[in-house]
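dumping the sequnces here before i forget
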Amino acid sequence: MMNNGTLISLSGITKHYDTGKVKVRALQGIDLEIKRGEFIAIIGPSGSGKSTLMNIVGCLDTPTAGEYLLDGRPVANMGIHQLAAIRNKKIGFIFQNFNLLPYATAYENVELPLIFAGAPGAIRKEKIMRNLSMVGLSERADHKPTELSGGEMQRVAIARALANDPEVILADEPTGNLDTRSGKEIIEIFERLNVEGRSVVTITHDMSIAERCHRIVRLKDGIIESDTRNGNKI
Amino acid sequence: MKTLIILKQFFQDIRKQKLRTFLTTFGIVWGTASIIFLIAFGEGIYKHNVKQFKGLGERLVIIWPGRTSIPFKGLPKGRNIRFTENDIAMLKKDISDIMVASPEYSGYGPLTYERKTLAQNVIGVYPEFAVVRNVIPEKGGRFLNEIDLEYRKRSMFIGSEIRNDLFGEGANPVGKDVVFNGVPFLVVGVMKDKDQNSSYRGRDRYKAWIPASTSRAMFNRRYPNNMVYQVSDEFRSKAVEKRVFEILGRKYKFDPADEQALSVWDTNEDMKEWRPFFQGFKIFLGIIGFFTLIVGGIGTANIMYVVVKERTKEIGIKMALGATRAQIMSQIIVESLLMTAVGGAFGFLVAKFLETVFPMLNLTEYIGDPIIAMDAVIATISIIGTVGFLAGFFPARRAANLNPVEALRL
Ligand SMILES: Nc1ncnc2c1ncn2[C@@H]1O[C@H](COP(=O)(O)OP(=O)(O)OP(=O)(O)O)[C@@H](O)[C@H]1O
Ligand SMILES: [Mg+2]
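..and the predicted 3d for all of it:
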């Protein structure tokens, strides 16, 4: 995992939405390289295309044009099964609104990716408990989302994203719905994950969070306005 | 392994979403039960009407003596035409389309059992009368037989109302002696009550029958009041009637075209007249059933659609977590199938239950009892099942074919 090669490579990525009358150009040519083990913040004004970009990187959406290489392989050529496997094992996606199944317990929510991966029961149980304890929620395994605070729900979502040991964590404003303290806890978890060698990419509006990342990519009007590593332009 | 996981997920979902599962299943139960029962109800009314119609007798023709209205071969009009038992035997022998026939000798007199006496119409007939006129004995009794006829036995078969009046409601008078016109008779049977929507000389349940031979001797009769016969096929009855007029016309010298020489009630004609009504009713039932099925199908489709729509976000979440389309679809297919199967089965049971309790409402006499026909059940369950399944399947497939982002946004 400590391989410093390129994990994600985007070139000339565009995304257009055709909403009848107006054509929205959400992304207008994004070139971006993400290496293994990087810790990146994506910032930019509302509507600048951050989520659109993140969804494409997470294989939840497809670009209108441009090339996306994941581990050197073009995503555009992948079939639905390959894409499902990537979402399942390679990428852990975290949403601003958590997207937990409301009727399932914390345990069952974390179990989902393991079920889709076909993991046997004993292994599932072990991994679920390990991940829940990693985010400090071992005691809350049997709680439903409605019985958890926002911060706790987001931590369940992180445990779920980590279920199949993904190489990269993608988070779209993970602290957007949280108070400062809970937000800080989430970022601390991300830092730990990054220290372990995982790539972490997070969208944020909070500069204090962005400054804890090693690299900051700033979007504006669907293009990259600036890209800095530890304050230095790339 | 894979199936186990799908099942595990399914039961997890069911358990977690009791209300949704319950509502969906209940909708299907409701749809199936009401359709099956409605069709059963119509079928019951139909059968009831047909049965009532046949109460008097099946393929029955009744002939009374008449009076000529046309002069014939120098004979004046206005002559009485009567027939004898021998004539009936001759007709039966000559006309192969007459299956069975019997004379009727009607005689009035006091009928007494112990202290109770009725002024009773007692009719002398052949054993075949029971066939022609749809007379069925209650358990433990019998109709008049050949021996009664041959030996002029004093055997009597009575209608249920006479039994009720003389012996008490529901009593078994078989083997008891009654006195008719001062002569003792042995009761051999009671007529099983039947629906009857037409009659001559009163309903059968108020009548009593004795052997024709006994009656003829007792009242010193030569000519029966009328004869009854059953034809082989209701569409042959007109031809048979023509032959009867020809044969009797030759013997008694009247014009076979003289419609008043004999008085005829051909119930086959009535049946033929009513046939379009019955057919119309059947078509009406079919249309009702068809539209109920459509309505039920739409209802079920709607429920499944709502369920799946509500699920779209869930489908999006699962896809974002790496579920394959097959994993998502198999779960929804299993779920829809199980819900429709369980719902359909329950619906059938509910309809079966209604079918069982309905007779307790005591409406049988007016509208009959609902009859669940298996073909209606199969049609209903398969249509509701298919519709429910497809209505669950297609929206789910559509959702599963979207990008995860699009499914999440819905
Ligand atoms: N499904 C869609 N249909 C049409 N336009 C869309 C759609 N999704 C996003 N857009 C548009 O694309 C542009 C970029 O949206 P995006 O969600 O990526 O912005 P963002 O940077 O994440 O904003 P925010 O910080 O508010 O989350 C916006 O103008 C948005 O209105
Ligand atoms: Mg956004």
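The mean pLDDT of chain A is 93.
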